[in-house]
Specification:
19% strand; five-stranded mixed sheet; single chain
Length: 166
Amino acid sequence: MDTLLPEELVAAARHVIEANRAAGRTISVAESCTGGLVAAALTEIPGSSDVFGASFVTYSNRAKTDLLKVSTDVLETFGAVSIATAWSMAQGALANSHADVAVAITGVAGPGGGTAKKPVGTVVFACATKGGDPSDVHADRRDFGDLGRGGIRLQAALVALELLLP
């Protein structure tokens, strides 16, 4: 296949599209540190539009609040890289799309921006399902370590795609 993306990423996206098509589910994503990489991978797959409907790249906190309705209180209290923020992003993506499931990604890709509590390589994921209980949080934090900016973003995109599987 003619693509700029790593084959591993495209293969994972293909699996997500095929599995969700078979399950009759539609998907959306809300990305921060991956900057649209998950959406790019999904749209590499011909015919993906019948499964993948929307992507929100909310890199700044303002975009998170404006587009996904993440509360400024959540951002100020927990920070952009937190389970609370990722969960709010996933809920916002679900509410602002016609998807059955939404995954959110937020993290520190580096090389700067890390702290002692959230070092470079810290990425938080959340998954929300249409009709699900918003108080039943499905989120996880991964610490990839300093794999370099590209390595962290690739690993984060692969995890996000895995979370989109039925």
